[in-house]
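Please, structure for the following, as tokens.
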Amino acid sequence: MNPVVSIIVPCYNYAEYLQDALESILAQTYKNWECIIINDGSPDNTDEVASNYCERDKRFKYFYKENGGHSSARNFGIRYSSGKYILPLDADDKIGKELLEKAVEVIEKDNEIIIVTSQTQLFGDIQKVMKMGAYDFKKLLIVNYLFATNLFRRIDFDKTNGYDETMLVFEDWNLWINLLKNGGKVVELPFVGYYYRQKENSIFREGVKDNKRIFKDLLKLYNNNIDIYEKYFENPITLIQENEKMKKVIHNYQKTKTYKIGITFSKVKNILHLNAKTLRWYRKPV
């Protein structure tokens, strides 16, 4: 019998898009799935939309929790899931009808595969197809080129600390690093399997406009994975400077009165008030 795939759908103020997401799950050619819908304290009519789908198909399961953020809702949903495999899906996005079938087929054949991803279609404000290209772990440490919806094993997820609930924009990136830090493969399916909605008022797009938040989350990402980053980079400033997108963030910081990113760690310490644990990186013996 085909293994169960648990599709995790957190929802906060996205009831207007939730139907599209759930319809894309119903359309799957792979039938052995469960969908965990988590209402993260949403004030809109998420309850009504989710309840309707639970009545239509028993594979949908609905939970309500007090608002705790996107990562909190994902972790909550995974705790209540029963599948061998996990596929997170945001409530405003969609998946292609063959995604589960093809992803399970690939990962079942090779225990070294940790993540199965697919080509991504951006839709809405931006129309574009995105491809991962060749997987490289060091490149992943510099910039997150994996989108949020990928298939992975529940047993591998349980070896991590899950999604970091203190992070706003880099929680996916942090999870991918933790899933892959001990090796393994990432396979990209040769077709569009994920549809990522582009809109002005998304949580992620609001988050990436906040340079202070980005830099805070970036340092948290490094702090969470210091042992991994120390194998590849001399210090976090070197790493940030290798990332073209983060160069823009640094440039914006240098324009502000409050945050002036210097070239030495002492300036970073004075400005960002880094704790002793984070500064351990800068004090690494020569």
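The chain is about 40% helix and 20% strand. The chain has two domains: 5-205, 210-279.
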